Amino acid sequence: MQYLVVALVVLALGLCLVGLVLYLAALLAPLMMLFGACATLVNTCRVLVGRGIWQPVLVTPNDVVNGTAGLKQRGPFPLDYAWPGYQVAQWRRDLVALWRCCADFIRHGWSRGFGYGRGSDLRWGAIGLTVLLWTPVTLGAALGGAVMVVLGAVVLGISWAAWGTLIGFERGYDTTVRRLRRAQPSCGVCFHVMTVPAYRCDGCRTVHRDLRPGLLGAVWRRCGCGQRLPTTVLRASRRLEALCQRCDRPLQARSGAVTDIRLPVFGPVSAGKTRLVYAGLVALRDRAAAEGAVMAFDDDTSRQAFEHGAQLIATGGDTAKTPAGQLPPAITARFRRGQSDKDADQALLHLFDAAGEFYANRDDNSELEFLDHAGGLVFVVDPFAVAWVRDQLGGALQDRLAQAHPATGDPDEVYQVTARRLQDFGVDTRRKALAIAVVKADLLTDLPWAADLCAGAVRDWLTTAGLDNLVLQAERDFGEVRYFVVSSVTGVHPGSRMSPAEPFVWLLDRGGFALGRDEQQTREPA
C-alpha cells in the first residue's frame, strides 16, 4: 500500500510537471512563433543587403553576355555587356539565398536541440524541450517566409507592371517619332540599313548593339564599366557614337534620330551621273542657303568629294569616269534649317553614284544593295545617246555630238535591267519615286527641235525622241515619276527648271525634308 501511494504521488507530480511544461509551452508558443517570423524578416534583410553566410550570387554583366543570367535573347541582337534590371534576374538569386538562409536557421535549431546532452540523462529532456519550443519557431519562420514571399511577389509584380509600362512608353515614343521622321539609319560604306544603330560606351568603349529600353534598363542602362547610358535612340544619338551594325564603322552624327534619305543615281556608262551629282550638290548648297538652310558634310570622304566636284563645276573641267568594279561610298550631306539644333530640323542625304557598268549587267547589278533601300531614284538620260537625237545632229552639228561625250549604253535597256533587279529582290517599286533627268541640256538650248525639252515638256519630248516605251514602263513600275531637264554647268540659278538641284529637291521633299517651295509649275507633270 505504501508503494502504491508513493507511485501515485510520483505519477501526480509527473503529470503536474508535464502539464506545467505544456502550459508554459502553450504560453510561449506565440512568442516563439513571433521569434521565428522575426528571424525570417531579419534574414530577409540580411540577404537583400548582401550580409551573412548565405549571400546571394550577384548577377553581373559577364553573366548577361555568357548566358548564365537566366535571360533569353529577344530579337536579332545579342545581349549587351550591361547590368540587368533587378526585376529580370537578381530577384531569383535573392529568393534562393533567402530560402537557404531560413532553412539553415531552422535546421541549425533542430540540430542543436537534438544534439544537446548526448550521452547523458539530459538528452531526452533536451529533445522534448526542442520539440515543444522549436516547433512553433519553425512554424513562425515558415509563416514569416510565406508572408515575405507574398509581399515580395506583390512588390515585384507592381514593379514589373510599372517598369513594363515605362519600357513600353519609352520604346513606343522613340519608335513612333523616328518612324514619322523616316529616321532609319544607314551606312554609306557597306550600304546596310538597320533598325537601330549600335552605340559605343563613352566610358569603356564597349559596343552596345541594342540600347533600346528592355531587360537591361528602362530609362537608363548601366554599362559593365559602370557608365550610365541613355536607353532610347533619340537620346543616345545626341551623346554616343553610333556604329553600323554590320561593319562597325562610325555612322553620321544623329543617325537614327534625323531624317535619312537614300538616293541612288543610275544610268548608262558616261551618261553624266557623276557630274549631275557634283552639280546637284553645288546647286543644293545654293538652294539651301536661299531657303535659310545650311548644307554641310560631316565626314572627310564626303567633304573631299564635294570640294573636288565643286571645283570641277566651277572651272568647267571634265569629270573623271567612276571606276568600274568597285562601289564608292555614298556622298552624305547634312541639311539643317537655319541654326536649329533640333533633330526634327535636320536630314541626311546619301547619294550613291556607282559606275554605269553595274547597271548594264544583271549579275553586277545584284551587288547594288543600296537600290533595295532607296527612298527614291534618279535615272539619268543622256539625250546624245538617243538615236533620234544623233539623226538630228548630222552635218554641221556633228561636232556637237563629239563635244557631248555621249553615253555608250541604251537608256531603255539600262532602265529595264535595273527595274527588273529591284522587282526580283522583292522591292515594291510602286512605293518608290523616280526622277528621270535629261542631262546636258546646255548643249541643246539653241536647237529648235529641243525647244520643248528646254521649256520643260520633258515627257512629251522623250516620247517624240523614241523613248515612249521607257516612259510608259517607268510610269507602270513606279508609284510616282517626274521628269526634269538639267544643265550641269555654272550659271544656272537656284530654282531654275534646268537647275541640277531640282530632281534632288523633289526627292528630298518626298523623303520627309522639304527644301523650300515645289517648282512643279515649271515642269511637266507625269
From TrEMBL:
The keyword Transmembrane applies. Keywords: Membrane, Transmembrane, Transmembrane helix. It holds the Pfam family DO-GTPase2. Residues 263-487 form the Double-GTPase domain. The chain crosses the membrane at residues 6-29, 122-143, 149-169. Signal peptide: none annotated. This is Double-GTPase 2 domain-containing protein. It comes from Saccharopolyspora thermophila. The lineage of its organism: Bacteria, Bacillati, Actinomycetota, Actinomycetes, Pseudonocardiales.
